[in-house]
Amino acid sequence: MDLGWIVRNLDEIGQRTLEHVLLTVIAVVIGFAISFVLALLIRRLSWLEGPIIGVSGVLYAIPSLALFAFLVPFTGIQNPLTAEIALVSYTILILLRNILAGLAAVPREVIEAADGMGYTPSQRLWKVELPVALPVIVAGLRIATVTIIGLVTVTALIGLGGLGYLIVDIGYRRFFLTATLVGSVGAVLLAVIADRGFVLLQHALTPWARRRTEG
Amino acid sequence: MQDTSGAVVAFEHVTKRYGGPDAAPAVDDLSLTVPAGEVCVLVGPSGCGKTTSMKMVNRLIEPSGGRITIDGDDVMSLPAVELRRRIGYVIQQVGLFPHLTIGDNVAVVPKLLRWKGQRIRERVEELLELVGLEPAQYRDRYPNELSGGERQRVGVARALAADPPVMLMDEPFGAVDPIRRDGLQNEFLRLQKRVRKTIIFVTHDVDEAIKMGDRIAILQRGGILAQYDTPAAILANPASEFVERFVGADRGLKRLSLGRVDDLDLIEAVLVRAGEQRAEVRVRLDRVEELTYALLVDQRDRPLGWIDQGDLRGDGPIDPSAATPGAPTVEMETTLRDALSALLGSSVQLGVVVNELGAVVGLVSVDAIGERLRNPVRAADGQLHEVGEVAAS
């Protein structure tokens, strides 16, 4: 363990961490946007649920390395697009499933009451169903983000930096254990911070879900 | 009819079929008129179309034929969403919105109608008070912090929010345990006395129908209206064998449900509090002929137990621990049947009548209930009802 290397390379470590966070955030944001649109589509055309979940399941099952190898001839190496296409496709299964599960778990009587009160279908969706489904949706974001933080380390293989750069390029190729350790611990720390962050976010967004009376 | 904010609801040859025109009807040529400000109970076995009939009023289900009017206007003449904002809706599972505070739940329809903020706040306050929930204490809490009974009251407040002339109630007390149900029913009847809405109330429980309904529509399988009349008339003259069976073999006893504690002349109770002198209470008790018990109450006049003449012998203050607890309590809205049942089960055959705060207002005896059955008595609305004739027949 070479502490001196860490101190000398704080700038580099910071830079790689930032890249890592950026790659993650872009993937989760785009993945969420796509999943949300798909979920609304499935609500309208329920027959689409099987095919869409099927395709996102297949995407999820492809090993990340294989997907990179497949994409590189089209999008090129060192192109963030290559990484993001792969990363986004991994988020979709998790996010879509949670959005659909959250909406499906809205109690029947809540929906019936909303209809009976005179909500229009879109008011019902935005003001009742989505808010009630929020805890499950945020839980999906939490899992997706933590998963992507782990996956982003692999993008170093196509020259995209991130904490994987420390692990692969410096640690593995040059047999320098300290860099591997810094990269790995950094990725784990990021995952833990993201995880806790989403727990706090959910707490703040859904005050109604936490207080309970006995009986 | 007294002043009402209700509207006349009329079903005219209403039919509902699920599937094609050849499918068996769920509701078959239903025609009935609910006068403004009255409670019409739709009752019948499962599969009789009672809930379907109710839901056609606010078009959660669209009729296949016939029409429904509210004060003469066809419900199909308005967009469904606008129609529903003008009709109160209460369901068994309540369906409060878990992510909104109690205040915001009650404010739902006024917000959909784009009322001003100040007006909404005042209305929410007024309604929470109306259903007996202290606004300051409940407004900012969430539904999961409330008991089942409290949630049901919020559900009623929410349905009343925009002061709709018509309310639909789908087994509103079905999920509440029997002991709490009687209290909620009484509370609802007191509320209805004040608001006078036209209410269509669905239940599968005949006793609840008799207690709650100004009129009862008994439906049978296939959505056929078997009888539509006042509870007294149905009990006296069931229109068919089906009605007779559905109402039950204990029709005679059920007639008791037509009367309320309210109809009786209450006996004034001799109330005593801890610390009063025995000699003094003896004198007070001797003045009332029909009583051999005094009633020990707390500082707010809530009953604690009976003090008999044995406990009053000698001098000195009353010993509160000598009181015999377990006096059955009833409310003014309790049916005579429920009151009788409560009285027969207790050692001292006197029932303590309490108001909504639990304070004693008087006593009822088994004799008084028997007397009430032999004589026609004024009903709550001041008219001489068929009730008397039924009881005498």
Kindly report the name of the CATH homologous superfamily of chain A.
Answer: MetI-like
Biggest interchain interface, per-side counts: A-B, 27 and 31 residues
CATH-defined architecture of chain A = Orthogonal Bundle
Kindly report how far apart the N and C termini of chain B lie. 27 Å
In terms of per-residue confidence, which ranges of chain A show pLDDT below 50 for 5 or more consecutive residues?
none
How many domains of chain B?
2
The number of E-state strands of chain A comes to: 0
Q: State the oligomer.
A: heterodimer
Main sheet record of chain A: none
- Specify the helix fraction band of chain A: over 70%
Please count the helical segments of chain A.
Answer: 9
- The Cα radius of gyration of chain A reads 21 Å
Walkthrough of the structure:
- Chain A has 215 residues and is an all-alpha fold.
- Chain A has 9 helices and no strands.
- Chain A has a single domain, classed as MetI-like (MetI-like fold, Orthogonal Bundle), CATH 1.10.3720.10.
- The mean pLDDT of chain A is 90.
- Chain B folds into 2 domains: 249 residues, P-loop containing nucleotide triphosphate hydrolases (Rossmann fold), CATH 3.40.50; 113 residues, CBS-domain (Roll), CATH 3.10.580.10.
- Chain B has 17 helices and 16 strands.
- In chain B, helix 15 links the parallel strand 14 and strand 15.
Layout: helices, strands, pairs:
The complex is a heterodimer of chains A (215) and B (393).
Chain A: H1 3-8, H2 10-44, H3 49-61, H4 64-75, H5 80-104, H6 108-117, H7 121-152, H8 163-172, H9 177-205
Helix pairs in contact in A: 2-5, 2-7, 2-8, 2-9, 3-5, 4-5, 5-7, 6-7, 7-9, 8-9
Chain B: E1 9-17, E2 25-34, E3 39-43, H1 50-57, E4 65-70, E5 73-74, H2 80-85, E6 87-91, H3 102-106, H4 108-112, H5 117-130, H6 135-138, H7 148-160, E7 166-170, H8 178-195, E8 198-203, H9 206-212, E9 215-220, E10 224-229, H10 231-236, H11 241-247, H12 251-254, E11 271-272, H13 278-287, E12 293-297, E13 303-308, H14 309-312, E14 329-331, H15 336-344, E15 350-354, E16 360-365, H16 366-374, H17 386-392
Parallel strand pairs in B: 3-8, 3-9, 6-7, 7-8, 11-12, 14-15
Antiparallel strand pairs in B: 1-2, 1-4, 4-5, 9-10, 12-13, 15-16
